[in-house]
Amino acid sequence: MNDDITIVTACDEGYALGAWLLIASIRMNGMDERILVGAYNWSPEWKSIINHFPNVTISELPIEDKRSVTCSKPEIMLRAQTDWVIWIDCDGFLTGNCSDAIRCGKEMVLVRPRTKSEIEELYRKVRSNEEDSGSVPESILKIWRRDIGDLCQPRYDFIIAAAIIGVHLPNSAPFLKRWIEQMHKVLPDDVSVVDDSSIAYFQTDESVFNSMFLFDSKAPAFDSSYALNHTDRPHFIHFAFNPKPWIMWNRFSFRHFDKVMDIVEWAAKNGYAENVKLPYTFKRKNKVLCRLLLPFSSIVAKFRKYARKFFH
Asked: Which CATH superfamily includes the segment(s) 5-222?
């Protein structure tokens, strides 16, 4: 048993089906690591469903915290009782056994560096014409440098994606605590997943992490061994775009339809779906219907985005 590492994730009940899918993929692929799930305002039914998986612990998140659950990453990571801990976003799944790819060096952090094309797209609205299209604009770096108040020059020429974050807790717990403090310092108390009102911190927890990754001299070093995006081996599939598959398939996610159905059907066969109300999108017989609805997914995503803003 891999008892020196904990896989952690967290969500509210709207993403509970995503957490269920992630955990099912982990267990289906023979990974026996401890799993810790941060639950924000979950029903007893969902707690029972998730607890049915072996070696899984649910840890309650404070309902008085009105920030998006994504800001709870360092808090739930610190609750792990193992030397290593790895956060994995609950809107994705593992394609195979990844146990040999989830540990980092003791003074390092396991994260995926964003590509230049990703960085270009993220900051295209605030970048000057003179700046490198694949770099973080100086206007953003200036704010991060000021708010961290440590290094004058960034440690790296790239930023990271926060869907997966692995650290060695005995070495990196102080960094995780500073991440919590920094989020309280620069993010609103009721911040959502994305903060469109902020230039430097619109990606909320990820933006704060990157500000520290670049300008905190005591932040863990980048571990270049990250391989969870290597498609020639077992890897992580992230449903980064909305809507999520348990709501509606989109053009990006639909290519993984059959893999997801394999996980769902494995879970059902092994007794992990008894009380799960599977949506039509999680039934293989509805594949044609899901494909026909793909052109409408962007409309649904926009509607849900504006609905969240209105009711937030």
From this structure: Spore Coat Polysaccharide Biosynthesis Protein SpsA; Chain A (3.90.550.10)
